[in-house]
Design a protein that fits this description.
This protein is of the alpha+beta class and about 120 residues long. Helices cover about 55% and strands about 10% of the residues. It has a two-stranded antiparallel sheet. Helix 2 crosses helix 5 and helix 4 packs across helix 5. It starts with a helix and ends with a helix. Bound molecules: heme C. The site of heme C has 21 residues, from helix 3 and helix 4.
């Protein structure tokens, strides 16, 4: 049994590091960290989103996730390590927070730069 584990662990690490790119990993993470995706409340690119409209004391109100695509990394990090009203706590590790920030950066990057990167990758 122990032998099997010893065999499996490097395999798993290998798969993690080579079969999935940083871009794929961060995209997946953004969509399903701990079961509930950031996109549900903050939008596909972190642009912010109205999640629901409701009436409170006869006033129409909405519940929205604020835009999170213009924050500095420090602000982003702090928000994810502190309690936010209306947002689940995720208890993310630093690598996950970095990956999420990376995802938002990629998504909000001007198109021109992306092209350049692609050419690089096919080299
Ligand atoms: C259920 C809806 C919901 C989900 C899911 C959610 N958030 Fe939020 N988030 C909120 C709300 C609402 C706020 C605003 C809290 C406040 O204003 O006090 C917020 C605030 C934030 C902030 C701070 C914004 C600022 O301007 O300071 C960040 C960063 C953030 N969320 C990132 C994320 C990330 C990354 C995920 C996925 C891991 C996520 N959120 C998932 C609802 C959500």
């Amino acid at each position: 049994m122990a032998h099997l584990l010893l065999l499996l662990i490097p395999l798993f690490l290998y798969a993690e590091s080579s079969f999935i790119t940083q871009e794929e990993y961060s995209t997946q993470l953004y969509h399903s960290p701990r079961g509930i995706g950031c996109h549900l409340c903050h939008g596909e690119k972190g642009e912010g989103k109205i999640v629901a409209k409701y009436k409170h004391k006869n006033h129409l109100k909405d519940f929205k996730g604020p835009p999170i695509n213009r924050l500095s990394y420090a602000e982003f990090y702090r928000a994810l390590t502190e309690r936010q009203r209306g947002m689940p706590r995720y208890f993310l590790i630093e690598e996950e927070i970095q990956a999420l920030y990376y995802y938002l950066e990629q998504k909000n990057r001007p198109k021109k730069k992306k092209k350049k990167k692609k050419r690089h990758a096919t080299k």
